[in-house]
Amino acid sequence: YKGACKLKKILIALAVVAAVAAAAIFFASSNEVKREFFAMDTFVSAKVKGFAAKDAAGGVSTLVRELDSKQLSRYTSGSEISRINSEAETVLSDEMRDYITELLEVGKMSGGKFDIALGAVSDLWSFNDSPRVPSTDELTEALSRSGSGKLSLSGNTLTRADGCIVDLGSAGKGIALDKVKSYLSDKKISSAVVSVGGSVLLYGKGSFNVGVRDPWGEAGRSVMTVKLGAGCVSTSGSYERCFEQGGKRYHHILDPDTGLPVENGLVSVTVISDSGLLSDALSTACFVLGAEGGAKLAAKYGCEAIFITEDKKVICTDGIKPNVTVLADGYTVVE
Ligand code: ADP
Ligand code: MG
């Protein structure tokens, strides 16, 4: 399992894109435009087909970058999320109000295990070149400033308790897909596959075969393919942003009750939804909840989910099981 923790950004990116390499037969024919770039701290790939494909592929790139720099990036001063985290009270754009409303709702539905007000805690876990395990004191202090109880939203006004940090990292890539989807429809694009890190938009008629990465395998290998129609599919994995210290592996999906990486036997969760925001948020939430609780949460939202465990079991919700084909050795689908 060692070596699964890829610290170098570019490696993460390549791994992720391989994970979600949506090999649509659909795209075998010509007038397809493909663009690949780095945005939102990850690898983005846009394959677009249609009359205005070239234009649209460029437009997707601008759109994703702008969403990040203007709204979601915590590291861009002046972005909406930066304003939120520096003011006690912020008047939100209608879009941001809707994102936060929906994400707070996922938080409630998850019994608090999904929490966008966990930034103070996740900031203690850096996954850069010199990662380290935070001390118990540090975690306790950061937890005392965290939790959606520290936020209140009334109309467009968000009030935030001092020291609490809002982090939309669990859903930003999915939000990007929703924006891309409405952009492609305005541009009258016939079909597209756009991946932002581990979140993929499948757009257009027909069906798509999406690969889900083998957590133990090489970057390009898939555990399985899933046959899907148009929609969004997001994978959250414990192999994504992680490091090892003292023989133990630490990753970026945290239990809001302890501030520690979730250890529940899962290595990845994939959620399928019409909504990019939901597929992304729920993949993170379902990871924290575990296979049983996660499947229940997905069902409440009418979404399908696929869980991969450390012992190479693939657990599918009923609606998606017939569409899953396991490719890698050693994996078994749980009946
Ligand atoms: P990625 O960003 O790698 O695609 P996810 O969508 O699973 O992964 O989101 C993980 C990110 O969400 C973390 O990096 C952190 O910023 C944030 N996060 C971690 N734990 C939680 C949690 N329990 N609830 C909400 N957000 C979380
Ligand atoms: Mg997510």
What's the short story on this structure?
With 335 residues, the chain is of the alpha+beta class. The protein has helices spanning 9-19, 53-72, 80-86, 94-109, 119-122, 136-144, 172-186, 276-300, and strands at 32-39, 42-49, 89-91, 151-154, 157-160, 191-196, 199-204, 208-213, 222-228, 231-237, 242-245, 248-251, 266-273, 304-309, 313-316, 324-326, 332-333.
Structure, described:
With 335 residues, this protein is an alpha+beta fold. Helices cover 32% and strands 27% of the residues. It has helices at 9-19, 53-72, 80-86, 94-109, 119-122, 136-144, 172-186, 276-300; strands at 32-39, 42-49, 89-91, 151-154, 157-160, 191-196, 199-204, 208-213, 222-228, 231-237, 242-245, 248-251, 266-273, 304-309, 313-316, 324-326, 332-333. The strands form 4 sheets. The chain has a 9-stranded mixed sheet with strand order 1-2-6-7-10-13-14-15-17. It has a 3-stranded antiparallel sheet with strand order 3-5-4, covered by helices on one side. β6 (191-196) and β7 (199-204) form a beta hairpin. α2 (53-72) packs antiparallel against α7 (172-186) and α4 packs parallel to α8. The chain starts with 8 loop residues before the first helix and ends with a strand. The relative contact order is 0.15. The model is unreliable at 6-29 (pLDDT under 50). The site of adenosine-5'-diphosphate has 23 residues, from α8. Magnesium ion (MG) is lined by residues 170-171, 234, 236, 280-281, 283-284.
